């Protein structure tokens, strides 16, 4: 799991029970704020309506844009942080019959409809205390509260239907566990333009290039070359969100030209870097 040195740790909210099978929790995160390693007694859809989130789960690092979310099943340890600020708008989802969601952490493509439903659910849901009890509703508003409650139930039903329909995306950066391979990945993360080959790393770490390649693919599931390519895409997303120029990003990632970087980005994300940032 990636280190969070230089990040600001913030408290995980204390909620004992959910007032509804689906409940939104919102928070605006500033740059480099992160929730520490934790788990929930319910499922979580980690999402932000703007900004970019980093979610670490076991051996993988996920970068989540407003076009994606991560489904985190009940009890799974994870951290969530904002690269450069984000409007964190996640859903807590209780285990319930017929939910039919993945039992492993899964990256999902968020539809415009689901985004709108999440925003609306946040707008109409009352705040809750630590025990899961709604707060701030005057007794004289009981009738209106009941009507709002029925509306929330309808939103929840639509959200469940949408969750089941979301396309799965393989958008993750696996991270090795062994110290030797961890050292390589940390160096490449700090300097994505590092062009050392497997032979170079082997001489530095006292192992053959073939041994490194075999261990890397066994631990991470992809080759070192593919991992480096994916890392560059993840760092590109991070730096685009930080407002850096496309030319500077291309050079710091090790591309010979801006056009070469733009071609890679378009192949992976379906649009040019400037289009992605504007979107």
Provide a concise account of the structure shown.
By secondary structure, the chain is of the alpha+beta class. The protein has helices spanning 112-124, 142-165, 179-190, 198-205, 209-220, 224-241, 246-252, 258-269, 273-278, and strands at 8-9, 22-29, 33-38, 43-46, 48-57, 60-64, 68-72, 78-93, 106-109, 168-169, 173-174.
Mean pLDDT: 89
The parts where pLDDT drops under 50 for at least 5 residues are none
Can you count the beta strands? 11
Structural class: alpha+beta
Rg measurement, Å: 21 Å
β-strand percent reads: 15-25%
List the helices and strands and how they pair.
Elements (H helix, E strand, L loop, with lengths): L7 E2 L12 E8 L3 E6 L4 E4 L1 E10 L2 E5 L3 E5 L5 E16 L12 E4 L2 H13 L17 H24 L2 E2 L3 E2 L4 H12 L7 H8 L3 H12 L3 H18 L4 H7 L5 H12 L3 H6 L1
Parallel strand pairs: 1-3
Antiparallel strand pairs: 2-8, 3-8, 4-7, 4-8, 5-6, 5-8, 6-11, 7-9, 9-10
Helix pairs in contact: 1-2, 4-5, 7-8
């Amino acid at each position: 799991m990636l280190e969070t040195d230089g990040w600001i740790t913030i408290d995980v909210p204390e909620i004992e029970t959910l007032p509804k099978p689906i409940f939104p929790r919102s928070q605006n995160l500033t740059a480099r704020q992160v929730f520490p390693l934790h788990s929930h007694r319910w499922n979580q859809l980690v999402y932000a309506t703007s900004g970019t989130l980093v979610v670490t789960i076991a051996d993988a690092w996920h970068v989540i844009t407003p076009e994606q979310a991560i489904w985190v099943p009940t009890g799974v340890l994870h951290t969530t942080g904002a690269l450069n600020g984000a409007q964190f708008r996640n859903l807590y989802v209780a285990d319930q019959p017929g939910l039919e969601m993945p039992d492993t952490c899964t990256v999902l493509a968020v539809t415009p409809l689901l985004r709108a439903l999440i925003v609306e659910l946040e707008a109409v849901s009352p705040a809750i205390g630590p025990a899961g009890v709604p707060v701030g509703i005057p007794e004289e508003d009981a009738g209106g509260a009941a009507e709002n409650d029925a509306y929330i139930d309808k939103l929840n039903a639509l959200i469940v239907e949408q969750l089941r329909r979301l396309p799965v995306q393989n958008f993750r950066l696996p991270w090795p566990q062994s110290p030797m391979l961890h050292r390589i990945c940390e160096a490449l993360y700090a300097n994505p333009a590092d062009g050392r080959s497997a032979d170079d790393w082997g001489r530095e770490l006292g192992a053959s290039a073939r041994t490194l390649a075999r261990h890397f693919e066994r631990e991470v599931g992809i080759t070192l070359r593919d991992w480096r390519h994916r890392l560059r895409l993840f760092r590109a997303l991070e730096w685009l969100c930080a407002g850096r120029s496309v030319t500077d990003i291309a050079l710091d990632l090790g591309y010979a030209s801006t056009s070469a970087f733009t071609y890679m980005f378009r192949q992976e994300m379906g649009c040019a870097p400037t289009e992605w940032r504007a979107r």
